[in-house]
Amino acid sequence: MSKIKKFIKLFLNHDSILFQLYFYLKYIISKLRFHGLTEEFVFIGYTGTNGKSSCANLMYQSLLGLGEKVALVSTVNMAINNNLYPNKSKMTTLDINIFLKFLKDCKKASVKYIVLEYSSHAYVQQRLKGIKFRQINLTSLMADHVEYHGSKIKYWEVKFNIIRNILQNSKSKFFCNENCNTLLPDDLKALVYGKNTLEKAGNLKDVEFGVGFTKFELFGEEIKSKLISELNLNNLLGIYYQLLDLGFSKENVLSVVSSLSPVKGRFDYVTSKDFEIVLDYAHSDDSMENILKFFHVQLEKDITVVFGATGGGRDVYKRPKMGRVADLYANKIILTSDDPYDDDPIEIANQIAEGVFNKDKCFIEVDRKKAILKAFEISDSNSLILILGKAGEEVMAVNGKLIKYSDMNVVKEFLNL
Q1: Contact criterion met (CB below 8 Å) for 176 and 138
Q2: Quick one: which H or E segment has residue 254?
Q3: CA dist 322 to 1, 232, 328, 388, Å?
Q4: E strands present in 139-202
Q5: Domains and CATH numbers, the chain
Q6: Rounded (5°) CA angle 325-326-331
Q7: Gap between the Cα atoms of 349 and 21, Å rounded
Q8: What is the pLDDT of residues 75-120, one digit of tens each?
Q9: Tens digit of pLDDT for each residue in 361-390?
Q10: Rounded CA separation 386/251 (Å)
């Protein structure tokens, strides 16, 4: 980061009058340039701490499977109809001008539905201002972006304001994962979905989780999904209710939900003769605990985990917590680089290691490729290797540059896949 940028960040913040005026002027200019464009689509939004990319991709798959014209903007990837490609911007929600240019391409392709993630940064920076959403889904609510927003409560309030803003449109519907429904303020009422909610209502039965599948009975229909874990089951249930709300038949919705494929970089499962590997985007203590605890319970195997933490002033408070979670559930820990930006990756790894009490099972290798290869070296057929933090991403942010890098390519190269 340049000295000028550091100076600006020191004396100005995103909610200052000057910055808000800047964001508002960008919105006005974009609105004039692309007048009326946003009114031609049905917008479906996902917000929350975790799960946005998974849900957005699953909805995109579902609408394609139902024969609709659909576009996608997620942290992982973007798409216009069947043309799916990586999102190389490293932005969950695109800059308003880039996004509206994307919508022009969508119009040319006769797209009806636009599925996208709505980040807290995007709300503060007015990147989606003026867009009327048909649906908004709150996928989870934990602590995140504390350095940017100032506190967990302020971050949550931004999420609630996203929903309030969208619900000003009387045609909008609000869906909420059961894992965060109790955190909602009194003025926000949602259609709540999730495993426990549907089981209590008698609509979900016989749930069985495996390493590469989930089985269940939904409204009398037996489904075996390729998606893994209770987290993904909840995501599927949310998609089910959203599709019904959009007017699709129950029969068609059940059929398309059963055929959904895992999202790239989310519980990606790779197996070979000697190894089982799972790659996931989990990059916080709570998301790490979700995935580590799931496999700790489901498998009678040792767990080797490879992960790091984001630099550039992000995730600082999370780092020791991430180490502690890994210490609780993993047998071997390899700390490495994630997206260090301008920070020293060794310093980041050392800060994570502060949370690891059992130091003898912890290794530091900041070269991420070497760290993954070390995981194979110290693991065997009785181990599960979890590679967390980047998953489907194809670049790494280092010293102001985006360097080409892929966890999956490293794994496939080692396994000769």
Answers
A1: yes
A2: helix 250-258
A3: 25, 22, 10, 11
A4: 173-177, 191-193
A5: 3-258 (3.40.1190.10), 268-415 (3.90.190.20)
A6: 135
A7: 38
A8: 888 999 999 988 777 667 777 778 888 899 999 999 999 999 988 8
A9: 999 999 999 999 999 999 988 899 999 998
A10: 37
